[in-house]
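Worked example 2:
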Amino acid sequence: MAGATMVLKITDDITLILERSSVLADELLFVTSGKDEHHVEKVDTYFIQKDIYHDTHRQSSVMVRRVEGALQVEGILGSELRIKPLLQAPRSLDGQIAHKVYEV
């Protein structure tokens, strides 16, 4: 996942050509205000954005994380489908996490 693109086969009919998404500025300022003071905090968005990918052709946007050597994919697969990891399901023989693709 270190590169900017990846290919992810979801089903026999759905293969995503994913590019890393850049949806936020590199830093965000969060301001909280109280009666007598306000606090400004800079937040580095790298850790938020590093796992967000999109496939423009399939109109998909997913978060892809590697957890204990296995991929977890969660997000939107076009206008009618979603994907999420089934964390309570047993893993495959090679340690992969099961996922559910469902209609909305």
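The mean pLDDT is 91. The longest helix spans residues 46-49.
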